[in-house]
């Protein structure tokens, strides 16, 4: 941990940036099994908000692991560090008044809870992709479940590595009791939540 470091304040703060963008910075965190639809929904939401003149940025687990987190694998401590770095970057985006959309498995409850603690203003919105393993595995667009079942990938979430559900997700999709399952309709559900909570205005 570095010492003798001092935070520099700016005359232009988060409220000024929110006024400029006519939106409130926040983090929408899509979590769930591989293949549950996190990335598809994240980018559908990004497009829908762009069409409404709102500025977003997607931090996708796969993508961030090509650059910032290219040094991390999937051991427990690597996944924890992956989430720690992504939540710190997401916090900077939210402070910039951007609607930051993260799509990461983030399987461990303590890692997700640590994210919440970083956003006391409750600007951290957890969205659980409630899609059963059987459906995710049937989709298997990258063939990774197939490799995992064949023992070619060790420690694959849902196969031989855990996903720890939480009881305090802000949004669970698809919603129980309705048959809204298309990415575009689910994106509208998230947008309704953002509108209701005031994130789509300064
Ligand atoms: N062992 C193992 N377990 C789970 N996932 C694996 C693994 N190895 C590679 N992949 C691919 O990496 C993507 C998950 O990266 P994340 O950064 O979202 O994972 S985590 O939050 O650090 O658990 C995930 O992408 P998505 O399918 O988009 O979730 C996988 O395709
Ligand atoms: N709402 C949905 N309904 C049906 N198929 C979906 C849905 N969302 C995503 N998919 C499909 O499921 C697969 C995994 O989607 P993806 O967004 O990559 O999931 P994740 O990011 O959670 O791994 C892809 O083939 C995608 O086309």
TrEMBL record:
<keyword id="KW-0418">Kinase</keyword>
<keyword id="KW-0808">Transferase</keyword>
<keyword id="KW-0067">ATP-binding</keyword>
<dbReference type="Pfam" id="PF01583">
    <property type="entry name" value="APS_kinase"/>
</dbReference>
<dbReference type="InterPro" id="IPR059117">
    <property type="entry name" value="APS_kinase_dom"/>
</dbReference>
<comment type="function">
    <text>Catalyzes the synthesis of activated sulfate.</text>
</comment>
<feature type="domain" description="APS kinase">
    <location>
        <begin position="24"/>
        <end position="173"/>
    </location>
</feature>
<comment type="similarity">
    <text>Belongs to the APS kinase family.</text>
</comment>
<protein>
    <recommendedName>
        <fullName>Adenylyl-sulfate kinase</fullName>
        <ecNumber>2.7.1.25</ecNumber>
    </recommendedName>
</protein>
<dbReference type="InterPro" id="IPR002891">
    <property type="entry name" value="APS"/>
</dbReference>
<keyword id="KW-0547">Nucleotide-binding</keyword>
<comment type="pathway">
    <text>Sulfur metabolism; hydrogen sulfide biosynthesis; sulfite from sulfate: step 2/3.</text>
</comment>
<dbReference type="InterPro" id="IPR027417">
    <property type="entry name" value="P-loop_NTPase"/>
</dbReference>
């Amino acid at each position: 941990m570095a010492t003798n470091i001092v935070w520099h304040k700016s005359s232009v703060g988060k409220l000024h940036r929110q006024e400029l963008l006519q939106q409130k910075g926040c983090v929408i965190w899509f979590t769930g099994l591989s293949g549950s639809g996190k990335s598809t929904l994240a980018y559908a939401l990004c497009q829908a908000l762009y069409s409404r003149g709102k500025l977003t940025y997607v931090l996708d687990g796969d993508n961030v692991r090509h650059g910032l987190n290219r040094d991390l694998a999937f051991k427990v401590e690597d996944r924890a560090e992956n989430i720690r770095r992504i939540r710190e970057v997401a916090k900077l985006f939210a402070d910039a008044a951007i609607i930051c959309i993260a799509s990461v498995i983030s399987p461990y409850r303590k890692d997700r809870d640590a994210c919440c603690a970083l956003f006391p203003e409750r600007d951290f919105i957890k969205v659980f992709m409630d899609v059963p393993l059987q459906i995710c595995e049937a989709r298997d667009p990258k063939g990774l479940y197939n490799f995992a079942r064949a023992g070619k990938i060790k420690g694959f979430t849902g196969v031989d590595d855990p996903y720890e559900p939480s009881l305090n997700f802000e949004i669970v999709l698809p919603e129980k009791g309705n048959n809204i399952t298309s990415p575009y309709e689910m994106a509208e559900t998230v947008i309704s939540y953002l509108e209701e909570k005031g994130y789509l205005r300064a």
